[in-house]
Batch of 4 targets.
Target 1
Amino acid sequence: MGDIILRDFDGNTLSSFWQYGLIDWELFYGCVRTVIFAESDWAIFEYDESVPGGRGALCPPNYELPCPGTYVLLRPDGTPISVGFSPVSSRLRHPTVSNTPSPLRTSAYRERIRARDPCCLISSLPVVRGDFSRFKAAHIFPRTHDVDWVNKGYPSRITDPAPIFKLGGPTKIDSIQNVILLRSDLRDAWDNYKFAVNPDRGHVVIPFVPGYDDIAGKVFKLDHITDYNLRPLDDLFRDNFLQGVLKNMKGAGEPTWEREDALGDGVMDLSRQDIWGGKLGKEHLEFEMAHRLHDLRVAQGSSC
């Protein structure tokens, strides 16, 4: 295990991630296509510092595993190629602090998810005697981004038969087809896109950063859900996996914003220009306000 780094001819980092032995060349090529654009066809080569341009052996897309190390992206004939980053960034989401939605809506998806899931669906840690103190409900697609959710057409894919008020209103974003039960620490990591579930590789759990050896390669637990109307949607897992790729595999990864420092006690100190003053801070401030006003917007939409 270790870091895999992909650079361009000039030495700029195009993509990087921590290899747990779960991302093969085929999948890596697909992830790279997500985060970069190029003027023509490209291929990945081993990096050999003893060769001008660093071109080593060609690494074609296949089901073999890239070994930790440095690689270089070039044209298939090994000549330099101009490469740019995709303009798409990962979707902001709230890691820890609740937006204090109405008790009825909160209890609806929480109670339903506790009735459906007997354990953490990632680690398989069981719920013992109804004690959920070590567990949290986690949305697959963040509820604050309900406009994006609607634009992607997800409400029409929800087949959950629960009453509309238990689904989070007309958007149905609180359906348990969009909610899973996780161990508390994993919920926070899930919200930060530290790992994702790949439904196209047998629902295997793929972390993007070091420190998650205990869950790397585990298969997301679904066998207890016999009713497909209550089963999480694979399209939502695909979207979440994409967010993890954009967050962690684009360049050297997105810059870290100190959420715990800014929101650890649930209070926003807007005098902290070191937190809220920069571009990233302003983006998080806008997102934080939308997050805290989410339930009000849902209530207004339901009354129209």
Target 2
Amino acid sequence: MAATRTRYTTVAIVLHWLIAAAIIFQIILGWRAGDGPKGPTTFALFQLHKSIGITILLLSLARLGWRLFNPPPPAPVGQPNWEKTASHLVHIGFYVIMIGLPLTGWILVSASKINIPTLLFGTIPWPHLPLIPDLAPAAKHVWHQIGLIGHEVMVKLTYLLLLLHLGAVAKHQVLDKDAVFGNMAPGAMPGLKEPRAWLAAAGLAAVIAAGYLYMPGVKPAAQPAVAAEPALVTAPVPTAAVATAPDAPAAASATAPAPVLKDPVAWTVSKGSTLGFTASWSGEALEGSFTRWTADILFSPEALDRSKLTVSIDMASAKTGDDQRDASLPGEDFFATAAHPKAVFSASKFRKTGEGRFVADGTLDLRGVKKPLSLPFSLKIDGDTATARGVTTLDRTTFGVGQGEWASTDQIAAKVKVSFALTAKRK
């Protein structure tokens, strides 16, 4: 059958064009991710780069398996032996890079110091290579270097193979005027006037343009879910509380002066209250939030000396809108939640700085490091309801958040802004 076939099978043709488009697009993504600033957009490009790489691997294995049972058509009659040999070697080379490039990339990801999971196109979990992630740091570094060097070598080999392949196709189509291009473009005739050849060229240009124009969307951080039960979630920051008497008419609560509360009052938080953070990653704002946090609040503006607050934040609940990035935050390089699952802010000193403005001076225990921290906030009272908002800034490096390559502040700035917006009800 192979001897009488005049072109590749339909399955081989479809796989050829899919893999070709993916490789060209992948090259452009690699250039952009490697040359750009290491920010959220670049991170998203790398995640897509990984997804496309695994897709190329799977398609290439499928094509190789198909070829074993469906040999290619014979070479054109009269083709020189050196051209047949060169064509054979180029085809072998393409299988080497189509399988080897994703494998070396897979090694790089598996041996990375930061355990970032792979989700194909943000949806399908893809495992690391067995054993490599559990190696000792020195052995893991060796595998990382093997993957890195192998990947770089194969990228350069890809450039060479593409140049040879495209040059050979042009030679056969324009100079030799044989049926080689028709093997992958059924019905194509030799010569410059063949529309399928121009369609293939336009497709190549479109894929290149798509690689440069594609801009991944950086998802906004998910808003923290606040449970209705105060025992599950209460305010993560100090809030003041002054309210009218519980039996006061609702209409009068907005205008009647609030009674002075000489003793601290316990407060709980309503649904919709948020606790978030903003970091700067290569000049781009990276916003996140915590979805699980609790607090014990005892506070009154008239009893600042006896007010107190204890906040507990589940650090594994940090969300930035990217599942793969979020999965790395609990690791040793960032929050180290295995050893330090909670961050705790405690305050027993409060200052009034203006009308409806206060500051809580306390201590933040984060990643096993305790440092003083002041939280300024504004307060508005309406009956039994208090609303508070505030922003403060802390230095992540003083708490050890960011180890290894992330300890440097040239990519992720040292200063992290923490903000909150909440509504509290008096118990």
Target 3
Amino acid sequence: MTDDFNEFFDDNTHWVEQGSEPMRGAEPPEPPKSRREMRKRRAQRRRKRISGIIIAIAIVALLIGGGYFGVTKLIAWRDSRSNQSTAIADYPGPGYGEVEFTVSEGQGAAEIADNLLKAEVIKSTAAFTSVVNANSTTLYPGTFTLKKHMAASKVIDVLSDTNQAAGFLEVRPGERATDVFANAAKLSGIAQSEFDTIIKNKGKDILPNEAGGSFEGWLEPGTYNVKSMKSASEILKAMVDKRIAKLDELGVPAGSDRERVMIIASIAEAEVNKADYYGKVTRVIENRLEQGMSLGMDSTVAYGNNVKPAQVTTEMTQDESNPYNTYKISGLPPTPISNPGDNAIQAALHPEGGNWLYFCTVNLDTGETKFAATADEHDQNVAELRKWQAENQ
């Protein structure tokens, strides 16, 4: 009962300071109607106190959290500024001196950047990789001429330009092995004598058995970064290994059948300059072989004399000492006469159907070639060629 009265007076007493005027018009407090109402007021007052405490705690927590977040962001901003300063460390260029720099097949931007930094070409790897990644730049393999202390963007301009890549050897379909060897030696800086020694040893440990010790036909057409290779053996093995892999991929039979396919394909590659004709030329070869006829191909005679087909003379076609003279010696020549491409190899595997025994290129500018099943038809085609020559040469 005493607590109830105390609560009543606490809730309803209004104190007036000394010397101040009492509140005018104020009504006396209304007493509670019951103990229940007094307990209700006490509960309300406790809830207000608890709410106030919770709000105060929340405000303090927000202040602490906000301060922590702000400090964290400030530190992160400071670190990012520091990292950014490191990332953009770059030389103004244009640089000085000369650096021969090689990008190997399969190297990524990060690895290239590390090598550039070691060579003192760029100031930081980040300056290089950030530009490459931002622009999705393609960097090509090869040997490039750079300078020390170049701007990263200028280095990228060079490494993304294939025209500035030195030391690349392009092996073309129809090209002879001797030409490939000479170009490989020149571009790689490796002595020609090193290639000659391997050739003299019949490609030991490089060529497959079915090649018979001859590289002709066994050098896969394509592009090779010979400047990055250390020896003639490494260069030739790369070409031969790619050739073997390609023949396996094309389904060319192994053993002696593989060499036969390569010989026929190489003749087709050398005789005509349009893929549309390869299948017909290989059919002519097969038909002639079946009938026991000599092949009579200028391309094989030219190979045996180390000249171009257009340089073949009547005397050359009568020379029986040339093992590649298919006018005088029946059957296929002893080796391929060039490095055939995929289309010619496919044509050797799958000749077109037909009864042709002859073919003649009637227009040397366009490469138009006509095929014939009889000698009379062939003579007409030859006459057409002679007419074109008279009018155009």
Target 4
Amino acid sequence: MHPNEEILETFYSSFKNHDPQAMTACYSKNIIFEDPVFGSIRGERAIAMWFMLNERGGDGLKIEYSEIQANDYNGSAKWTATYLYGPQKRRVVNHVVGTFSFQNGKIVQHTDHFDLYKWSRQALGFKGLLLGWTKFMKLKIQQQTSKALSNYLHKMKSFQEEA
């Protein structure tokens, strides 16, 4: 197994085991992450995102992954997340292809590709069905997730200052 395939195996097995600390140890400090829901985020925000998602998903978050492949520079994996979303606890099954770039034994870029319209129909219900395909809804989703991530980061920093 290529060393970068081992990094991806560690990343996804840690995700499956709800261990964001081990997941994000695979990232470089200046990681660039991108997906349709969060848009493009970097560094501390990208790392905090995995802590937030694991915390919110709790024991109901199920991760499956396959087809890990990597070379010296790039890699990819397929993965599926199953979880309950939002106050209505809507069941979401999200099929994702992750692509990666590596440098010095760390992930420096991670992009998750998935169908935002399919995700929004599951996560947002009727509103997602009607508007989930629009640029307006994509921007609205990214604004809401950015705000949630900012609030989470603020909460984490406050907690760390108290400790």
